[in-house]
Design goal:
This protein has 88 residues and is an all-alpha fold. The chain has 3 helices and no strands.
């Protein structure tokens, strides 16, 4: 499974080890930093990166379809399948 078909922002995968450490060590400081990390990244992705991918990089409608099918942060259990990429 390609990770980019499981979640649009791979930062959610980076946070998984932090969650384990937060739970094991009951670290409020690390939990706070993780929340700040997620909030800053979320604002950046929504305001700058995603509109730029749609406009500047000429992904256009293909990116809009991908964005509508693939969750932003929560990993999908099954990959998204784009039928256009497998057309013969």
């Amino acid at each position: 499974m390609k990770l980019v078909t499981a979640a649009r922002h791979l930062a959610s995968i980076v946070l998984l080890p932090f969650v384990v450490v937060i739970v094991v060590f009951r670290s409020c400081i690390l939990a706070g930093w993780s929340v700040v990390f997620v909030l800053i990244n979320h604002v950046y992705f929504i305001l700058l990166e995603e509109p730029g991918l749609e406009r500047r990089w000429s992904f256009g409608q293909a990116y809009v379809e991908y964005r509508n099918q693939v969750p932003q942060w929560i990993l999908r259990l099954r990959s998204w399948f784009d039928p256009r990429s497998h057309a013969s």
